[in-house]
Specification:
Layout: H1 2-14, H2 17-20, H3 27-30, E1 35-41, E2 48-54, E3 57-65, E4 71-75, E5 87-92, E6 98-103, E7 127-132, E8 139-143, E9 145-149, E10 155-160, E11 163-168, E12 175-176, E13 183-189, E14 195-201, E15 206-212, E16 217-220, E17 227-233, E18 239-245, E19 264-269, E20 275-280, E21 299-301, E22 305-310, E23 317-322, E24 329-330, E25 338-343, E26 350-354, E27 363-367, E28 375-376, E29 383-389, E30 396-401, E31 408-412, E32 418-420, E33 439-444, E34 450-456, E35 467-473, H4 489-503, E36 507-512, H5 521-524, H6 537-548, E37 553-563, H7 565-576, E38 583-587, H8 593-600, H9 610-618, E39 632-637, H10 646-658, E40 662-667, H11 677-695
Parallel strand pairs: 35-36, 35-37, 37-38, 38-39, 39-40
Antiparallel strand pairs: 1-2, 2-3, 3-4, 5-6, 6-7, 7-8, 9-10, 10-11, 11-12, 13-14, 14-15, 15-16, 17-18, 18-19, 19-20, 21-22, 22-23, 23-24, 25-26, 26-27, 27-28, 29-30, 30-31, 31-32, 33-34, 34-36
Length: about 700
């Protein structure tokens, strides 16, 4: 702590008077706001729940309408430590009295061993818990995850080791409900609670299974060689709609796929399993299924209409089709992308977020199955996402942010105003007033493609001096950074870091490179991206050229930083263009696609796919190690499930042989999306210090 305080004091002395006038703040302050996730409306009483991650302490909160009509919030659980135990997968009971949730484990890679970022000798567990909103005393239902509460309110189905289990909310020993081959996923109760549908993943194919709790029988819906998924029950519980994705072997991840065998929607009899196709995508654009952000990809709405996402015109939109088959109807026309989608409980309206009319932000819209176009619910300079209807089917609840204040839950008033549900949760010393508003920039890539970016300018850029600059690349790559605090935890943290660097005198450019989302199918599935040619390197060069041409940037002091896919582009930029980029911070980046691809496609064998493997290698930073000269800081947790730790090990060995200066920061037992708040702080402090050392005084 003494060393940290001394380091911080020295940093302040090095800053120019103009930078000091910007009222510097600490990383601790700018990362102190609780991050909300999993906004979940209750089926009754107007209640809503969410998770707050406050300095690594993850807890359940709820809000409910009071007698005066305003919402009142309260914390339901009392987990008090930054212990790295994730919390999520919320599910309400029908009477809105209890919330069921998962605590512990890796909520992204659910079939992996439970992460233990604190290196606890006692180990950790994952469990399904239930907590009454009145007693606030969680009780363990069983080991597992992905709970789904029966509409009868008596049972909770959940998953454990790939199988379906059942626990009674009243207590007792849970039991394995279904013994089946494959791995179960995506549990969906029938409206009356008598049956349970689930995905049965079996490697190169998948079925939809339906279990009858009374008959204790299991039926698979029209099984095939394809991948069936996303079951949606009809209101009467007699039919199930589901997606059928054609088998497609030989396709490698992290490479473009604009066309394929068209996917389809089928309707099955829930008792017999017999099905028929009611709609099939056209060939060409939209033939490859692309998801919206939703609990399920099919919505059985009022009027016996099926609502679904489709990229027919190259943008992700919502369409409707009669459950009996027939002509599809476009519900959201225009050059924009639909994202978070949910259906009102009366099935009358869809509410969603999109970047319609504001491509680098998100706002809320709603549409009915019979409408010709959506209507705006929110607008302005803020960002609104994750919308849900309360149980009255009128009240809208969202997560929202802007350039200065991070995401927080809010209710939309009758006057159209967003009212925060828990304003008291924001720390009093959070430096909102000291944050800059990023500017939208559209720069030209090295090959001429227009690339959107956000520019963070420090307060002293008008002093006539040339300043150090850093370029930030997001991960994914299926992401889009916005003109304000992000709705994803990882990128809320990186936005805080970019603001911190700007406060210390750096010009920061955050780049939405090709293969990201928000700008249409052709941009996302950019030709030759990733392991198929690394065409994003053109965007890396374009960002460097843009900064070099700015009068307020010192061209000798331009750095790169990013995590995951952003770490890949950081390493690629340093390996191929050390004359342009003087230093970099590479956080859990990919350095050899042939090491990364098997992590997502276990059947991939580079020695058997020689042409693809050669191109993947040529698209990797390690293939250009001979021209890498700039120093780099490497950061990674060694229990990373997204990017193998071997990526960092192999790069470090190659840099040593090349004689390139590098530093390393390794977090034992941490995963990719760091679970401990103190890990984020340690990583970002190390990154800031690294840039300061190589770029000298940030203010000079």
């Amino acid at each position: 702590m003494k060393l940290h305080l001394l380091r911080y004091a020295v940093g302040l002395l090095l800053l120019s008077p103009a930078a000091i006038a910007q009222k510097p703040f600490t990383l601790e302050q700018v990362t102190s706001a609780p991050f909300p996730s999993e906004l979940t409306a209750a089926p009754a009483k107007g209640r809503v729940a969410w998770v707050f991650n406050a300095l690594g302490r993850r807890n359940l909160w709820i809000a409910e309408p009071a007698a005066d009509g305003n919402y009142k919030a309260k914390q339901i659980t009392s987990y008090a430590d930054d212990d790295g135990q994730d919390l999520g997968q919320l599910a309400w009971t029908p009477d809105a009295s209890t919330i069921v949730f998962t605590r512990g484990g890796d909520l992204e890679f659910l079939d992996r061993p439970y992460p233990n970022p604190q290196s606890s000798p006692q180990g950790v567990q994952q469990g399904v818990w239930a907590v009454s909103v009145e007693s606030r005393e969680p009780k363990l239902l069983g080991e597992g995850h992905s709970p789904s509460v029966s509409p009868k309110g008596d049972n909770v189905a959940y998953l454990f080791k790939g199988q379906v289990w059942l626990a009674k909310l009243s207590g007792g020993k849970p039991e394995q409900l279904i013994h089946s081959n494959g791995e179960a996923d995506s549990l969906h109760w029938s409206p009356d609670g008598s049956k349970l549908a689930f995905d049965s993943r079996r490697g190169d194919h998948a079925f939809i299974g339906v279990y009858d709790l009374t008959a204790k029988s299991l039926v698979y819906l029209d099984p095939s060689v394809d991948t069936d998924r996303d079951a949606a029950w009809s209101p009467d519980g007699r039919r199930i709609a589901f997606l059928r994705i054609p088998v497609s072997k030989g396709r490698l991840p992290f490479s473009p796929r604009r066309e394929g065998q068209p996917w389809s929607i089928r309707i099955a009899d829930a008792s017999t399993g017999q099905s028929r196709e009611i709609w099939r995508a056209e060939s060409g654009r939209g033939s490859v299924f692309h998801e919206a952000v939703a609990e399920t990809q099919l919505f059985w709405s009022a009027g016996d209409q099926i609502i679904f996402p489709w990229e027919r015109d190259g943008w992700l939109h919502l369409f409707s089709v009669p459950a009996t088959g027939g002509t599809v109807k476009l519900l959201t026309p225009g050059n924009f992308e639909v994202e978070d989608v949910s259906l009102s409980s009366n099935r009358a309206e869809i509410i969603f977020s999109s970047n319609q009319d504001d491509i680098d932000r998100r706002h809320i819209w709603k549409v009915s199955p019979s409408a010709d176009h959506p209507s705006a619910v929110t607008s302005g300079a803020g960002i609104e996402t994750a919308p849900v209807f309360a149980s009255d089917n009128r009240t809208v609840l969202v997560l929202h942010s802007d350039a200065q204040t991070p995401m927080r839950p809010a209710v939309l008033s009758a006057k159209g105003e967003l009212r925060d549900l828990a304003p008291e949760a924001l720390p009093s010393d959070f430096p909102a007033r000291n944050l800059v508003t990023p500017q939208q920039v559209i720069l030209s890539s090295a090959d001429g493609m227009p690339i959107h970016a956000q520019l963070f300018l420090p307060a002293n850029t008008t002093d006539g001096a040339r300043h150090p600059a850093v370029v930030f690349f997001h991960g994914g790559s299926r992401r889009q950074i916005l003109l304000g605090w992000h709705y994803m935890f990882y990128y809320s943290n990186s936005y805080a870091m970019n603001q911190y660097l700007a406060s210390r005198g750096y010009v920061v450019l955050s780049v939405n490179y090709r293969s990201g989302i928000g700008y249409g199918l052709d941009f996302r599935e950019a030709l030759n991206f990733g392991a198929a040619g690394a065409s994003e390197f053109n965007d890396v060069l374009g960002a460097g050229i843009y900064l070099r041409n700015r009068a307020d940037v010192d061209a000798r002091r331009i750095g790169l930083w990013g995590g995951s896919y952003g770490g890949y582009l950081t390493a690629l930029g340093l390996a191929r263009a050390s004359d342009m980029f003087a230093a970099g911070v590479d956080i859990h980046g990919v350095h050899d696609w042939n090491t990364e691809i098997p992590n997502f496609l276990p059947s991939y064998k580079p020695n058997e796919c020689t042409d693809a493997a050669r191109l993947a290698w040529e698209s990797s930073p390690l293939s250009s190690i001979s021209t890498w000269r700039s120093p780099v800081l490497l950061i990674q947790g060694d229990d990373d499930r997204n990017v193998p730790f071997a990526e960092m090990v192999n790069l470090a060995e190659a840099l040593r042989k090349q004689g390139v200066s590098f530093e390393q920061l390794v977090f034992p037992d941490e995963i990719h999306d760091f679970l401990l708040h103190r890990t984020w702080l340690a990583a970002y402090h190390a990154a800031s210090d690294f840039f300061d050392r190589h770029f000298k005084s940030p203010g000079n």
